[in-house]
């Protein structure tokens, strides 16, 4: 019996043609130049450029180091365009915070729901490149920016340059839930680098 392919499913050629743009998007999500990623992966920038533009055939030998460095899977690069839009990344708890990712790892902008628990240990202000935006969902959040301290209530937002030493913690005896948006550098500092 002959099966008719589902017209909603992309062909192998369509999946392969999407690989280059997805590879480029994942690299941009890490804020790496073509040269930076090529050097880290041990390949020439021209090889990587040809992979991203679809002018070079993708092989496992070329793709595996790239997927490891970019934190994506081969399925992410070859997945159909109409993939499940839901973000399925596990929340982590570090240093008195519960951090739930709201965007895919390869996204250029990173969004998180962060719960600051009132029993969190007192940390030190942090500094990194970029901008940060946050919105308080519930509880009260104490934001320290340099020498200035501000207590944010539910429904209030803040935006600041992250080159200013900054620290956030729950104010009072209730957790503070916050939506926070920052770039890859901010994620490394607040999420990956959290001890």
UniProtKB/TrEMBL annotation:
Keywords carried by this UniProt record: DNA-binding
Q: Which SUPFAM superfamilies match?
A: lambda repressor-like DNA-binding domains, RmlC-like cupins
Pfam entry (one): Cupin_2
InterPro entries noted in UniProt: Cro/C1-type_HTH (IPR001387), Cupin_2 (IPR013096), Lambda_DNA-bd_dom_sf (IPR010982), RmlC-like_jellyroll (IPR014710), RmlC_Cupin_sf (IPR011051), TransReg_Diox_bact_type (IPR050807)
Write out the GO cellular component annotations.
cytosol
| DNA-binding in keyword set | yes
Q: Which GO terms describe its molecular function?
A: DNA binding; DNA-binding transcription factor activity
Q: Does the keyword DNA-binding apply?
A: yes
Q: Enumerate the spans annotated as HTH cro/C1-type domain.
A: 23-77
Q: What protein does this entry describe?
A: Cupin domain-containing protein
| Organism the protein comes from | Leucobacter edaphi
